[in-house]
Structure formats: structure tokens, C-alpha cells
Specification:
Layout: H1 2-7, H2 19-40, H3 52-70, H4 74-103, H5 114-133, H6 141-171, H7 177-199, H8 207-222, H9 238-259, H10 275-294, H11 297-336, H12 346-358, E1 365-373, H13 376-383, H14 385-402, E2 408-413, E3 416-422, H15 426-441, E4 444-446, E5 449-451, E6 455-463, H16 468-484, E7 489-492, H17 501-517, E8 521-530, E9 536-547, E10 551-553, H18 555-565, H19 568-590, E11 596-600, H20 603-607, H21 611-622, E12 629-634, H22 643-654, E13 657-663, H23 669-675, E14 680-683, H24 697-709, E15 712-716, H25 721-729, E16 734-736, H26 746-755
Parallel strand pairs: 6-7, 9-11, 11-12, 12-13, 13-14, 14-15, 15-16
Antiparallel strand pairs: 1-3, 1-6, 2-3, 4-5, 8-9, 8-16, 9-10
Helix pairs in contact: 2-3, 2-9, 3-4, 3-9, 4-5, 4-9, 5-7, 6-7, 6-10, 7-8, 8-9, 10-11, 13-14, 14-15, 17-18, 19-21, 21-22
């Protein structure tokens, strides 16, 4: 209901002053003019001077009541309602004073009746309570303590100043005592109102309204000053002009609040306020004045020292506050910016993207471009993280230079950057991304290394009002799709596009279910054939996934997901158990003619401390002899040695054979052959694809090295009869590839065993 009422206050947005405010100002102005005339020559009946007070009270009360009726916030609604009540009490006090003055001899009109004093005191108390209830810029108990200490400092300092210059002269006259006390209260409340202006926050009451309210109280308090000069004029009283002036400022404050934007409210102010220091300066000045005019020289020296000491403390505190401000600025920058590139980090990027989506015109276009560097991991691995960091810093600078002022570039982490293209449609996004790719195409020199950089970029196109998280997800999906196409380019997100982390996470969840179900995964076997005679020397077990919805999913799609999610361990163990069971079945039928079973083992599996024990359990469970199992590993699997090599030694002691897969594609191969227990080398397909007539030096060197070390050799990727014959002439014993057979079901291997071998040919695709 409060929100509904807030939208139904069109007059609150009016740019013109209220007629009630104009009437209140007119009454106050006419009264001041008429009052000035009265000081020199009495004019008109005496009761006219009392009429403006109640009239002004009615006008101000109506304005305050209007604000209370339309204010959506209950706390501030109570403030304006209390202010309206206080104004009514002031008007009643003025009316009681008028009745008393007009029914008694003129000589005593300077003493307000107890009814007026009671109304004024009640009004002051209610105002003070409502001011106290206004929120201040304080979140903790310590903040609140400092706020009220500041307010007390201001009130005490100003109170001393007012006491010396205004109250002492007024109190000298016994007739002005009660009035002076009331005026002092008004002054202190004015100071308190000023302190609230500096310390209030989170309010829907505008700063201008609070300042006008303080001016109202201040004008009432200062009215005590001329009272001494009016004691001889029985027709005049400071209350006559003080009350209309106070009520005019209150009406002005209420009208200003009516025209303020209720959505902006009061800005949060710096908790460091100059008001306490201003109070210290006032008191120090008063001290110097009193001491200098009334006290001996020694006290003057003490007073001067106290003032100088105060100045030093104030300067010191001001310097500390400035330093703290700089420190806070640095801390804020560190919390919102990337430490390496100094670009906005993920948190600040999310804030700016959300701001761009919510604070723009309806339907305004916007694009998000997610940038991922291609093969950045190779730079870190080959050249070190120092070179990688230098490269990232330079990339950040180039991205900054490639965007428009209204755009935002941020680093999300690693080698991922993101750009918010504000106000850019898809065509403009293409132009901006082309500019980014052009800037990245220039080689980067990092620590003496000249590096060529390419990036895959995914673009999500949206408009103001879109969901920020969904845009980033779409950009991520498009980026992965661009990377799958070879990188060094960009794609816009389209419905149905997959390939991002969200899709991978979904695929990982489905793979977990497939492992639990046990009916979606199956094995195919690719023969390893003796080049001389075509006998089946072995088979390599290859896992396949028949998804019930997506159809058959290739290993290139789900094996990386299994590695990232940790599912490669249960997947690998399922493959090993199924392969050993199938090898045991063949052995029971074909005996010694059964080929050895080759099973791939991932780095994650080999690092598991219980992996050798698991292999032993599987062999015991299936009855397969250890020497008929070959575990294939890659160079990168054992590159760091450690636990992997310990497990390999344990597996070899069991009788299991170890094959080094994709030999010749990695680094430090000869060192691995010395330190890593290996029985067989499986050569990369590049050795087999050397065309006829080309130099065969590497192929000859590898076979000679294998013979010298007593290692078996398998040539992979043999696709033509010419390649098979050339490898046979080079003394390669066995080979694997489409020239002999594609991966097949277990029944197909059984047919080959029954036929006595494989005849090389060009296999159909």
C-alpha cells in the first residue's frame, strides 16, 4: 500500500511552490514591515500583532500533514506527523500568549503565561524526540558513539557561545528570564538539527529540508537578542515576529520536501564531520576573548598554548583522516580490481554489467564478449608463469585500448577476459570484436620471447532488462563453440549451441548416471596385428557411450569431462574390469591364440595409491594371467615421476606389462625410458604416415633404439597397404590402424580369431 501511495503523489514532483508556502512567506514579510513601523510609531490596534502567529501555524501544520499523508516510509511519516503536531502546539502557545496579553495590563506582556510555556516546552520536546529518531550514518555501536559525541561537542560549544553573548545580557533582566531560557532551548535545538543534517543518512528527507528546519530553530533562538531593546515598548515582543519566522522556515522545509525526489533521499555523508572542529574553534575563540580582556598575562599565555595545542591536534586528526581515506581507496581498489592486470575483477564486472542492464533506456542493446586465450597453458608450461603473467598484462592493455569509453573490460581469472559492449547491437559487436582480434594479432614480446597470441571469443547479445548471469553463460557457451572450431575467431550465441562449462557439467552428471546404470557404456576392441603373417597379437579396449537421448557420444567429448569431474577414476576401473572379463572369455575358448588385452590408464588413476591392489583384485576375480594385460600410459602421465612410477614398478612386479603410448610426441622421452619401467613403445601415427620415397631416418632410429633396449614396438595409425609394407621392411613387428581393422565389438574379434588372423586391406569408413 505504501508503494502504491508513493506512485500516487504527482503533486510531490511539482516544480512550483505551494500556495500555502507563498501565503506563509507573505504573512511573515508583512509582519516584519509592520513591526519595523511599530518600533517608531504605534499604528493600529494592539491585537493585530498576535494574529500572524496562529495563521502561520495553521499553514505550516497543513504542509507538514500533507507530507505525513504521502510519505511511504513509516519512520519518516512519523517525523512529519510529529512536526505538524509541534507546529500546532506552537500556534496554541502563541494564541494563549495573545489572550493573556490582551486581557492584562500592557506592562506584563513580556512574561509568557504558563499555558504558553507549557505548549512551547511540549513542542520543543516533541521536536527534539523526532530529531533524535532520525537515522544517522552509523552501522556499528562505535559509529553511533562517535556520531553522538560529535553532536554533543557541537551543542556544548555553541551553547557556551550563545550563553556568553546572548543569555547573560538577557538574564540580567528578571522579566526576560523565562523567554531567554526558551530561546536558548531553540538555539540548542537548531544546533542539534544542523548536526543531524551532517550525520543523517539513508533518509527520504532531503538535506535542504533539514537545513531549512535548522534555520527555523536558529531564527527563533536569535530572536532573544533584540528583546532587551524592546523592554521599554509594551506593544512589542520578540515572540510576535519570532514565531511567524520560525513557522515560515518550517513551511518552506515541508514544501521543499514535497517537491524533492523521494527516490534519492539524503546522500550518505562522510562520517568525518567538520562540525565538532568548528565547535572547538568557537570555544577557543571565546576563551581567547574572555582571557585577553579580563585576565593577567600568564593566563593569556596558557590560553594561547591551549589554542595552539587544539590547532595541532585538529591538523593531526585531519591528516590522519586523509591518510585513512587514501588507504580505504586502495583497499577498495584491491577488492574490485585484478591484482595482476589492474582491470576490474569478476565482482566489479558483475556490478557494472548489472548496472548497464538496469539503468539504461528500455530496449537499449548490449553485448557481452567473453575472451579466452588459445593455448595459454603451453606458454606457462614451456616458458614459465612469469612470462605468462607479462603476456596477460599486455593483453589487458590492448583490450583497454580497443574498447570505447562507455565499455568495460575485466579479467575473470586465468586467461579469461570479458568485455561489456554497452549500447552495442550485434553488428557493432562484430566490429568491436574484430578490433580486439586485430590488436591481439600483433606479436607480444614478453621477457625476450616473441609470442603470437590468438583468442576464442563468445558473444552474447542482449538488451536492458536481461539477466546478467544468463548473458555471461551464453557468452561462455559461444566461446567454447568458437574454440571447438579451431579458435582464433568468434561466434555469437544461438539457441541450441552447446560446449560451455554448463553443458559439460550436465554431461558429467549424465555420465555419473550412466556409470551407475551400467547399460549405456560398452567396449569396442581395435586389433593389433603382426605385420608378418597377420596374426592377432593384441587388442586395445576403447570405451563407447550409447546415450539414450543424444545417441552415441565419442570419447573425445566425454573423456575430457570425466577427467575434469574426477569420473575418470570410476570410468577407468569399469573399463579395466570389463576388458579383463572379455579377455578371460576369449582365453577360455581360444587358449594361447588369445591376444593380449591393452587398456588405457589415465594419470589420475595411476596416481591412486590403491591402483596396483585394484588391478590385482581384478586379475584374481577374472582369472586373467597378469602377462596377458598391457596397461597403456602416456609420457605426460609419468612426466613428474613420483607416485605414478612407484605404482608402475609394483604393477611390473605383478607381471603386468607397461606400454608407453604416443611415443615421440612429448618431451624428455629418452630420460623417461631410463627412469620409467616400460615394456613396449607405441609409436605415434606420424612415423607411419611417411610417404614412399621420403627419408625414413627417424623410423629406423626408433626401431633400432627399441631393439637395443629390449622393448617391443607397435606402430599406430597405419592406414594404407604401402605404409604397412614399408614398416615391415623396416623390421617393425606389429601395427595397429584402419588398414587392418576398425574398432569392433567382441564378436568381431572372435571371428578374426576363428579365421586365424587379419588380411591387411583398406577398411571402409
Amino acid at each position: 500500500m505504501s508503494l502504491f501511495r508513493e506512485h500516487l503523489r504527482p503533486r510531490d514532483r511539482s516544480a512550483s511552490a505551494s500556495p500555502l508556502l507563498i501565503a506563509s512567506g507573505t504573512v511573515a514579510m508583512i509582519l516584519l514591515i509592520w513591526y519595523a513601523i511599530q518600533m517608531y510609531a504605534p499604528v493600529g490596534p494592539r491585537f493585530l500583532v498576535w494574529i500572524p502567529g496562529p495563521v502561520s501555524a495553521i499553514l505550516a501544520a497543513v504542509l507538514c500533514a500533507q507530507n505525513a499523508a504521502t510519505e511511504p516510509n513509516a519512520q519518516y511519516r512519523r517525523f512529519w506527523r510529529g512536526l505538524a503536531t509541534s507546529v500546532v502546539l506552537v500556534g496554541l502557545g502563541g494564541a494563549a500568549g495573545a489572550v493573556d496579553a490582551l486581557t492584562h495590563p500592557p506592562a506584563i506582556i513580556h512574561r509568557p503565561p504558563w499555558t504558553s510555556i507549557a505548549c512551547y516546552v511540549a513542542a520543543m520536546g516533541l521536536l527534539l524526540w523526532r530529531l533524535y529518531r532520525l537515522p544517522v550514518a552509523a552501522e556499528t555501536s562505535g559509529d553511533r558513539l562517535r556520531v553522538w559525541l560529535d553532536a554533543a561537542t557541537v551543542m556544548l560549544g555553541t551553547g557556551l557561545f550563545v550563553w556568553h553573548f546572548l543569555m547573560l545580557p538577557t538574564l540580567a533582566d528578571p522579566q526576560g528570564g523565562s523567554t531567554s531560557i526558551f530561546m536558548l532551548g531553540l538555539l540548542l535545538m537548531a544546533v542539534f538539527a544542523g548536526a543531524k543534517v551532517a550525520l543523517s543518512s539513508g533518509s527520504t528527507i532531503s538535506n535542504i529540508s533539514l537545513w531549512l528546519f535548522g534555520a527555523a530553530l536558529l531564527s527563533g533562538g536569535l530572536a532573544a537578542g533584540p528583546q532587551q531593546s524592546l523592554l521599554e515598548n509594551t506593544r512589542l515582543n520578540s515572540v510576535h515576529y519570532a514565531i511567524p519566522m520560525v513557522l515560515f522556515f518550517i513551511a518552506w522545509a515541508a514544501d521543499r520536501q514535497r517537491r524533492a525526489n523521494p527516490l534519492t533521499g539524503v546522500r550518505v555523508r562522510n562520517p568525518f564531520s567538520v562540525l565538532p572542529y568548528a565547535a572547538v574553534v568557537i570555544v577557543d575563540g571565546l576563551l581567547m576573548l574572555i582571557v585577553w580582556t579580563n585576565e593577567p598575562q600568564d593566563l593569556r599565555a596558557v590560553a594561547i598554548g591551549a589554542v595552539v595545542l587544539t590547532v595541532l591536534v585538529v591538523v593531526r586528526q585531519a591528516s590522519a583522516f586523509r591518510e585513512n581515506g587514501r588507504l580505504l581507496a586502495r583497499l577498495h581498489h584491491g577488492a574490485t580490481h585484478d591484482a595482476l592486470t589492474q582491470l576490474p575483477n569478476r565482482a566489479l564486472f558483475a556490478e557494472r554489467l548489472q548496472d548497464a542492464l538496469t539503468n539504461n533506456d528500455s530496449g537499449r542493446p548490449l553485448s557481452v564478449a567473453l575472451i579466452d586465450l588459445d593455448d595459454f597453458k603451453l606458454v606457462n608450461d614451456a616458458l614459465g608463469h612469469g612470462v605468462g603473467d607479462t603476456l596477460l598484462v599486455e593483453i589487458g592493455k590492448r583490450l583497454l585500448a580497443s574498447i570505447c569509453p562507455q565499455d568495460t573490460v575485466a579479467r575473470l581469472g586465468g586467461d579469461e577476459f570479458v568485455v561489456v559492449l554497452d549500447g552495442t547491437d550485434p553488428t557493432g559487436a562484430d566490429i568491436a570484436v574484430d578490433r580486439i582480434l586485430s590488436s591481439l594479432s600483433v606479436p607480444v614480446v614478453a621477457d625476450g620471447h616473441e609470442l603470437l597470441v590468438s583468442a576464442s571469443i563468445g558473444i552474447a547479445d542482449g538488451r536492458s532488462g536481461a539477466d546478467a548471469a544468463e548473458l555471461l553463460r551464453q557468452a561462455d557457451v559461444a566461446m567454447y563453440a568458437a574454440k571447438k572450431q579451431g579458435g582464433a575467431g568468434f561466434l555469437h550465441y544461438e539457441p541450441g549451441m552447446t560446449g560451455g562449462p554448463a553443458d559439460n557439467a550436465h554431461l558429467g552428471a549424465e555420465l555419473r548416471l550412466a556409470l551407475a546404470a551400467g547399460d549405456q557404456l560398452f567396449l569396442e576392441y581395435q586389433p593389433i596385428v603382426a605385420l608378418d603373417g597377420g596374426l592377432l597379437a593384441g587388442v586395445e579396449a576403447l570405451v563407447r557411450w550409447a546415450h539414450p537421448v543424444r545417441g552415441q557420444i565419442g570419447p573425445v567429448d566425454f573423456i575430457p569431462v570425466a577427467e575434469r569431474t574426477g569420473l575418470v577414476i570410476p570410468l577407468g576401473r569399469w573399463v579395466l574390469r570389463e576388458a579383463c572379463r572379455q579377455a578371460a572369455r576369449w582365453t577360455a575358448v581360444y587358449g594361447l591364440a588369445t591376444p593380449v588385452m591393452n587398456v588405457n590408464v589415465s594419470a589420475r588413476e595411476l596416481r591412486e595409491s590403491d591402483f596396483p591392489e585394484f588391478v590385482a583384485d581384478v586379475l584374481a576375480e577374472t582369472g586373467l594371467e597378469p602377462q596377458r594385460l598391457v596397461l597403456e600410459i602416456t609420457e605426460t602421465t609419468v612426466f613428474a615421476l613420483g607416485a605414478s612410477v612407484v605404482n608402475l614398478h609394483e604393477l611390473r612386479r605383478m607381471g603386468t606389462r607397461i606400454a608407453l603410448d604416443d611415443f615421440g610426441t612429448g618431451q624428455s622421452t629418452l630420460t623417461l625410458l631410463q627412469d620409467c619401467p616400460v615394456d613396449e613403445l607405441k609409436l605415434d601415427r606420424s612415423f607411419a604416415t611417411v610417404e614412399a620415397g621420403e627419408h625414413n631416418t627417424m623410423a629406423v632410429a626408433v626401431i633400432n633404439l627399441a631393439h637395443a633396449l629390449g622393448l617391443g614396438v607397435v606402430a599406430e595409425g597405419v592406414e594404407t597397404l604401402q605404409q604397412a609394407e614399408r614398416l615391415r621392411l623396416l623390421s617393425y613387428p606389429v601395427a595397429q590402424g584402419f588398414c587392418f581393422a576398425r574398432p569392433m565389438h567382441a564378436d568381431g574379434v572372435g571371428l578374426i580369431l576363428a579365421a586365424g588372423g587379419v588380411t591387411p586391406s583398406v577398411q571402409p569408413a
